[in-house]
Write a structure and sequence with these properties.
Layout (H helix, E strand, L loop, with lengths): L1 E3 L1 H5 L6 H11 L8 E3 L3 H13 L4 E5 L10 H5 L5 E2 L1 H12 L12 E4 L2 E6 L3 H22 L11
Helix pairs in contact: 2-6, 5-6
Pathway: Cofactor biosynthesis; molybdopterin biosynthesis
InterPro entries: MoaB/Mog-like_dom_sf (IPR036425), MoaB/Mog_dom (IPR001453), MoCF_biosynth_CS (IPR008284), MPT_Adenylyltrnsfr/MoaC-Rel (IPR051920)
Pfam family, one: MoCF_biosynth
């Protein structure tokens, strides 16, 4: 898990979305590593994503930096690292909260893969994190199985 926040990375504000994200992902049965805090800077976000991919994590979820503010750069940091995008899941994440929080459609978060690691950008709000995990929960097991070459699609050439 990666929290992207200038203020939290400086210690000026406690990180609330990262720990909540970790708790919710544990609640759906995932083993979750530490929450990494990085500032809203392309290089810092990219290094955190590259490190997770090098460690061969099945999933890395970012929280924060997906809006329209000038320093919201998480999608710009994520995009060049992705091998493949998963636009349907990104659209579902945005749509989930739009009925109750119309500004949810302003999130620019991406979903895609770096090798066999699924990368998901969520908003930095606790509500966005809750909505995001609610969308991920029913599809995550299948998505991760497919990335490992399993699921109902089997290994390549099989």
């Amino acid at each position: 898990m990666v929290t992207v926040s200038d203020r939290s990375s400086r210690g000026a504000r406690p990180d609330t979305s990262g720990p909540l994200l970790a708790e919710l992902l544990r609640g759906i049965g995932l083993d979750v590593g530490e929450v990494v805090l990085v500032p809203d800077e392309v290089e810092a976000v990219q290094e955190a994503l590259r490190a997770a991919a090098r460690e061969a994590y099945d999933l890395v979820v970012t929280t924060g930096g997906t809006g329209l503010a000038p320093r919201d750069v998480t999608p710009e940091a994520t995009a060049p690292l992705l091998d493949r995008t998963v636009p349907g899941l990104a659209e579902a994440l945005r749509a989930r909260g739009a009925d109750t929080v119309p500004t949810a459609v302003l999130s620019r978060g991406l979903v895609g893969t770096i090798g066999s690691t699924l990368v998901v950008n969520l908003p930095g709000s606790t509500g966005g994190v809750r909505d995001g995990v609610a969308v991920l929960a029913p599809v995550l097991e299948h998505a991760l199985a497919q990335l490992r070459g399993g699921g109902d699609h089997g290994p390549p050439g099989g």
